Amino acid sequence: MALAQRIAKVHERIARATERAGRDPASVTLVAVSKTVDRESVDEAYRHGLRHFGENRVLDAVEKYATPLPEDASLHLIGQLQTNKAKPAAGLFDLVESVDRPSLVGALAKEGMRLGRPIPILLQVNISGEEQKAGCDEAAADMLADSILTEPSLALRGLMTIAPLVADPEHVRPVFRGLRELRDRLQIRHPESRLDILSMGMSNDYPVAIEEGATHVRVGRAVFERN
Ligand SMILES: *Cc1c(COP(=O)(O)O)cnc(C)c1O
């Protein structure tokens, strides 16, 4: 299958999932995870209409996007971020999805201050409790969200999670539901904030994530992998 067909297939599965959930297809943003492909493939995907791209390594991305993407494209950081890379990350990415600890909140807030604009971020939560997974514990999410929301140089836009890789995506439905419920609770606690984004779902499970309220799905292999 060629890139155009793979993209069309993903859009079609997004449309069907939103239909099952009674949602507007326009309420779901496809973030094409381009971490395994070169810049040429990203540009090709852009020409095929994709506008949101996800990368997981800051310094590689700085090089890969030395020539910036067009104005209407956006770049998301979806991989673990070390505090000593907060500066290049804040400069390059339109959304940092992987904020999961106080030291990183501090480092990014400092960069926001320096840049004179709030850095858009998501709080990454380890809903499944898998040990090797990044993300803060669900129990720590309230405190971390509170501290982010006191930082004028950070703009908390919502939550992100990575579900465990399982054979049957139905098995991770509770993870997606858990993230949505956590977002709903945080939104009630902080009515002044706009926690609109739920970034959840990858190639093997994004339709289930959409049924549970995902606004952003991070799809890598289904878009870029030849099969
Ligand atoms: C690689 C990656 C994805 C995409 O995974 P696929 O299975 O290729 O769709 C999504 N989110 C994160 C955080 C990733 O690291």
Summarize the structure.
This protein has 227 residues and is α/β, with parallel strands linked by helices. It has one domain: TIM Barrel.
Characterise this structure.
With 227 residues, the protein is α/β, with parallel strands linked by helices. The chain has a single domain, classed as Alanine racemase (TIM Barrel, Alpha-Beta Barrel). The chain contains nine helices and nine strands. Strands 1, 2, 3, 4, 5, 6, 7, 8 and 9 form a nine-stranded parallel beta sheet that branches. Helix 5 links the parallel strand 4 and strand 5. Helix 4 packs across helix 5. The protein is globular. The termini are close together. The model has no long low-confidence stretch (mean pLDDT 97). The site of pyridoxal-5'-phosphate has 13 residues, from strand 9 and helix 9.
Itemize the secondary structure elements and their pairings.
Layout: H1 3-21, E1 29-33, H2 39-47, E2 52-55, H3 58-64, E3 74-77, H4 86-92, E4 95-99, H5 102-115, E5 119-126, E6 136-137, H6 138-149, E7 154-160, H7 173-189, E8 197-199, H8 206-211, E9 216-219, H9 221-224
Helix pairs in contact: 4-5
